[in-house]
Amino acid sequence: MTHPLLDLAPLSAARFASIEDRVARLLGTEQDVVIMQGEALLPLEGAIRGAAGPGTTALNVITGPYGRTFGDWLRDCGATVLDLSVPFHTAVTADRVREAFAEHPEIDFVSLVHAEAATGNTNPVAEIGEAVREQGALFYLDAVASVGAEPVLPDAWGVDLCVIGAQKAMGGPAGVSAVSVSERAWARMSANPRAPRRSYLSLLDWKERWTDAGRRALPHAPAQLEMLALEACLERIEAAGPDAVMARHRTAAAATRAGVRALGGGLEPYVHDAREAAPVATTLRTPPDVPAFELVARALESAPSLPLAAGGGALAKEMIRVNHYGPDATREAVESSLAALGAALAERGARVDVPAARRAVETAWA
Hints:
Elements: H1 13-27, E1 32-36, H2 41-51, E2 57-62, H3 65-76, E3 80-85, H4 94-103, E4 109-113, E5 115-116, E6 121-122, H5 125-135, E7 138-142, H6 154-157, E8 161-165, E9 177-181, H7 183-190, H8 203-211, H9 224-240, H10 242-263, E10 268-269, E11 282-285, H11 292-302, E12 308-310, E13 319-322, H12 331-347, H13 354-365
Parallel strand pairs: 2-3, 2-4, 4-7, 7-8
Antiparallel strand pairs: 1-9, 5-6, 8-9, 10-11, 11-13, 12-13
Helix pairs in contact: 1-9, 4-5, 9-10, 10-12, 10-13, 11-12, 12-13
């Protein structure tokens, strides 16, 4: 008996290359695009270990938990790391980055997260990219959460290493990811004696065995189901139009912020300024006496499929994430999430107005 998910024809090198080309079109880039056969942490770590070493002085921007992870990797590579941290309820500015360059002109590598789904903020990459170009540093960007929800333009922004994943706004699986690599980044990796080689983390292996070899023979068997799912994500975005997909995510974010203000009960947007709020997910701050993880658990009891989660680590006590991305970037998902949170708050004696929240969401969506 045949099975549509199991009895598949082998994925050809030509089809693999065509999916890379579609990723490049989505990013508007002329850079090499390498699709990695694993979750986005694979190219995120591989790009840092390939491009950074003992001679690197890195400015590591921290606007959420992933920035901290990148700093750990950079230090582990032997780089000198200068952390630029801002409160998680806000975004970094190009002026702060320029100030760091003025204090440390030796900086030659900048790592940044575009949108932090974990904290709900998004950073102004275009302006920061201009500052990085003035410095002449290599620019590494985590765009895993932002791609599909807002513009991601490596060439226009001067990004040398831009990592994306399919599992957020693209609406796909977590098991496949990609990185666009500039000529400057390839040169930095080639000159780095500590860059991974003969390793699953190695981008240089892919360059030599795949990209430079004309993309005619795959280095190893691809993760076929994930590749086909990525192809389907790209087809769906192309059919709807990237602008329409991004508009849907922006509207979901605006509707969530409007709805939570109308709901009451002590909930409020975690990111203060809407201009610094990521369209991929909206984070909410709970009242001091209401643990976020308890409120989310209660809300999910009646509707376990809602895109709700408590913050990670210490944020689990105070932060709720409404993950309105991919197929959940809809009015129904936002309304249902706020209604479930409202009901959970009401059980605790809070004064909430679920009908007002629903009207606010509908108005924002309209």
